[in-house]
Design a protein that fits this description.
Blueprint lengths: L2 H70 L2 H12 L19 H10 L1
The structure holds zinc ion.
């Protein structure tokens, strides 16, 4: 190998190292973006989880309240509710007390069946 060839080879390596260095910088900035996004998603996930838990707690509360209501309704209460429904009002906990506008409401019917 003569001096010229050695010089060319060293030049080649220098060029490759330069390219590798550039790629490394590229990857580094992509990694930075990914870490940033990961951080953002973690925070969002945490936030959503909190909200989900809060909503779930509310649902459980609502459910046990409805169950309690159902248990507490004696025959007479049921008749009153059935009459209210016949008169065209919602008796379900979704729209309770609002006019039905002559349409049957599934929630109300479910509620009536459950209460019987
Ligand atoms: Zn209803």
């Amino acid at each position: 190998m003569n001096k010229r060839q050695i010089f060319d080879q060293v030049s080649d390596m220098e060029k490759q190292i330069g390219e590798l260095y550039e790629q490394l910088g590229d990857l580094k900035s992509k990694l930075g973006d990914l870490l940033e996004e990961n951080n953002r998603l973690s925070m969002e996930n945490h936030h959503l989880r909190n909200r989900f838990d809060a909503t779930e707690d509310e649902d459980n509360l609502e459910e046990s309240r409805t169950e309690k209501q159902l248990k507490e309704i004696p025959g007479e209460g049921y008749d009153n509710l059935a009459r209210l429904y016949e008169e065209g009002f919602h008796i379900c906990n979704v729209h309770f007390g609002s006019p039905r506008q002559d349409e049957d409401c599934l929630f109300c019917l479910l509620f009536l069946n459950k209460t019987k």
